[in-house]
Amino acid sequence: MNLAGRDLLKLSDLTPAELLALLTQAAELKRDPYRVDLRGRVLGLLFQKASTRTRVSFTAAMAQCGGSTIDLLPTVMQVSRGEPLQDTARVLSRYLDVIAIRTYEQKELEAFADYADIPVINALTDQFHPCQILADLLTIQETFGQLAGLTLAYCGDGNNVAHSLMLGCAMSGIHIRVATPAGYEPDPGVVQQARTLARNSNSEVQVLQDPQEAVSGSQVVYTDVWASMGQEAEAEARQAKFLPYQVNADLMKRADPEAIVLHCLPAHREEEITTEVLEGSQSRVWEQAENRLHAQKALLVQLLGAE
Ligand code: CP
Ligand code: NVA
């Protein structure tokens, strides 16, 4: 695997083999968290939206390896006064070794990456959330000792997390079933790309409307908020449409008895997931959140060419 100097704007920027190698390295770093030396390396965090897990796990990952982070708060940067992203990207490339960006449009992230000379990491856009899926796959692998051949059911909104999950599952041989209300399906272009990747891993990508059909016999049940950041105005209107997609004890009866439940967090209890399931014995959400740290540390090590 040689990811030195590359960007991670979406999961399919990696080959399936690179993705699996990254997960192996993440598992190794989880066992030996302080082994890597990133002294003197600086990660910039340019976040246009709120974040707990992504921001703190990236910061902790750098700190554990002797590197440092700079919080590039948009409100105090000149971008808030109209300095073009292209100029910001070129200047920041002279100070930083790597940058993680959370923003709205994927195009904005891509434009930044075009002008930056350092690796650019997608820390969430409206379209994708690749770092999340690295941790999700690590959690699934830890639980089942494998990825290929499992079935993951995603119930809810065809959003950024659903898109990256589709790509990640298709790349690693997990069958994915995405169940959404009509009108909230994942982007057809992403579905197409996932199906192309799935052909090479002998997995299947299904887009459904029936959550019970999606969950039936699956080993992983996944959900995310019904209204993502930036969609707050739609939240109320979405409630009734999404209620049948709630991950609750009844829906879980359809899954494999050994199934685990994942949620990228933050969760809205009694909306997309009940407290009973979130706090129940099948939930792996806290392990999943922890794995953000290990997975992103592996990513940083690779993009910085540190080993
Ligand atoms: N799951 C996730 O990305 O969480 P944050 O929004 O807290 O970073
Ligand atoms: N889909 C959610 C994920 C948050 C981590 C959002 O974009 O708000």
TrEMBL record:
<dbReference type="Pfam" id="PF00185">
    <property type="entry name" value="OTCace"/>
</dbReference>
<feature type="domain" description="Aspartate/ornithine carbamoyltransferase carbamoyl-P binding">
    <location>
        <begin position="6"/>
        <end position="142"/>
    </location>
</feature>
<feature type="binding site">
    <location>
        <position position="224"/>
    </location>
    <ligand>
        <name>L-ornithine</name>
    </ligand>
</feature>
<feature type="binding site">
    <location>
        <begin position="228"/>
        <end position="229"/>
    </location>
    <ligand>
        <name>L-ornithine</name>
    </ligand>
</feature>
<feature type="binding site">
    <location>
        <begin position="129"/>
        <end position="132"/>
    </location>
    <ligand>
        <name>carbamoyl phosphate</name>
    </ligand>
</feature>
<keyword id="KW-0028">Amino-acid biosynthesis</keyword>
<feature type="binding site">
    <location>
        <position position="160"/>
    </location>
    <ligand>
        <name>L-ornithine</name>
    </ligand>
</feature>
<keyword id="KW-0808">Transferase</keyword>
<dbReference type="InterPro" id="IPR002292">
    <property type="entry name" value="Orn/put_carbamltrans"/>
</dbReference>
<feature type="binding site">
    <location>
        <position position="292"/>
    </location>
    <ligand>
        <name>carbamoyl phosphate</name>
    </ligand>
</feature>
<dbReference type="InterPro" id="IPR036901">
    <property type="entry name" value="Asp/Orn_carbamoylTrfase_sf"/>
</dbReference>
<dbReference type="GO" id="GO:0004585">
    <property type="term" value="F:ornithine carbamoyltransferase activity"/>
</dbReference>
<feature type="binding site">
    <location>
        <position position="78"/>
    </location>
    <ligand>
        <name>carbamoyl phosphate</name>
    </ligand>
</feature>
<feature type="binding site">
    <location>
        <begin position="264"/>
        <end position="265"/>
    </location>
    <ligand>
        <name>carbamoyl phosphate</name>
    </ligand>
</feature>
<feature type="domain" description="Aspartate/ornithine carbamoyltransferase Asp/Orn-binding">
    <location>
        <begin position="149"/>
        <end position="302"/>
    </location>
</feature>
<keyword id="KW-0055">Arginine biosynthesis</keyword>
<keyword id="KW-0963">Cytoplasm</keyword>
<dbReference type="InterPro" id="IPR024904">
    <property type="entry name" value="OTCase_ArgI"/>
</dbReference>
<dbReference type="InterPro" id="IPR006131">
    <property type="entry name" value="Asp_carbamoyltransf_Asp/Orn-bd"/>
</dbReference>
<comment type="pathway">
    <text>Amino-acid biosynthesis; L-arginine biosynthesis; L-arginine from L-ornithine and carbamoyl phosphate: step 1/3.</text>
</comment>
<feature type="binding site">
    <location>
        <begin position="51"/>
        <end position="54"/>
    </location>
    <ligand>
        <name>carbamoyl phosphate</name>
    </ligand>
</feature>
<dbReference type="InterPro" id="IPR006132">
    <property type="entry name" value="Asp/Orn_carbamoyltranf_P-bd"/>
</dbReference>
<feature type="binding site">
    <location>
        <position position="102"/>
    </location>
    <ligand>
        <name>carbamoyl phosphate</name>
    </ligand>
</feature>
<protein>
    <recommendedName>
        <fullName>Ornithine carbamoyltransferase</fullName>
        <ecNumber>2.1.3.3</ecNumber>
    </recommendedName>
</protein>
<comment type="similarity">
    <text>Belongs to the aspartate/ornithine carbamoyltransferase superfamily. OTCase family.</text>
</comment>
<dbReference type="Pfam" id="PF02729">
    <property type="entry name" value="OTCace_N"/>
</dbReference>
<dbReference type="InterPro" id="IPR006130">
    <property type="entry name" value="Asp/Orn_carbamoylTrfase"/>
</dbReference>
